[in-house]
Amino acid sequence: MTALTLSGQVALVTGAGHGIGRASALALAEAGALVVASDMDFARAGETEQLIKDAGHKGVAAVADVTDEKAMAAVVDDIVRAHGRLDVVHANAGVLMAGTALTQTLDEWDKTFRVNVRGTFLTVRAVLPQMIKQKSGAIIITASVSGLIGEPDLVAYNASKGALVNLTRQLAIEYAKDGIRVNGVCPGWIETGFNDPVLGHLDTEELDQLVGTQVPLGRQGTPEDIAPSVVFLASDWARYITGQLLPIDGGLTSM
Known about the structure:
CATH topology: Rossmann fold
CATH superfamily: NAD(P)-binding Rossmann-like Domain
Structural class: alpha/beta
Distance between the termini: 35 Å
Largest sheet: 7 strands, parallel
Shape: globular
Strand content: 5-15%
Strand order of the largest sheet: 3-2-1-4-5-6-7
Number of domains: 1
Order of helices and strands: EHEHEHEHEHEHHHE
CATH class: Alpha Beta
Number of strands: 7
CATH architecture: 3-Layer(aba) Sandwich
């Protein structure tokens, strides 16, 4: 089998300024791709770009709000104009706000769906024309184990990530004929601060006890635990894989 490589490919990662997005951008660059690291916060995107370059790889920062259709289209237009192609997209940007059906505010519900679902949809819609033209492309959507199971105090987040699970499947079926593969990663509890709205009230001992009870591998994951699967799904090693959701959760969903 040939080595896993993305040499010569161009990748876009949204939400690349921190956490899973940053780790994914770094890993895709290490695999040989030129990575466009996009984030709402240009300073954080610039930090990711610099980390990529410091490691001896190719990276470019971009600023865009995934909920803004024109902004996402402009980012993709800039990529194609500069590089002539777009091979890999990791649609990763997202938000999490805790709440139940009685406590979640409508503003929180709407923002969750605006960023997680609308933002992912607009990212994909912006890149599809170029991938269809190329007759090739790999799209990786950051869903979540929260889209596979129900959890207390996460009504909007669970619902939005469930939507992404089936969006991944629908897109895979729709665009397989165009040589485009669409898959999703479903992270479990990842130590990035993203889960602070749910876990932030716990002290270290309480968190360790909870993780030890709920996660068979006995620890929270890290962004670097997610990134290799993104690279794999982007690569030719996954050339016969589409429409799949990969839990990366230390066994949490097997409990």
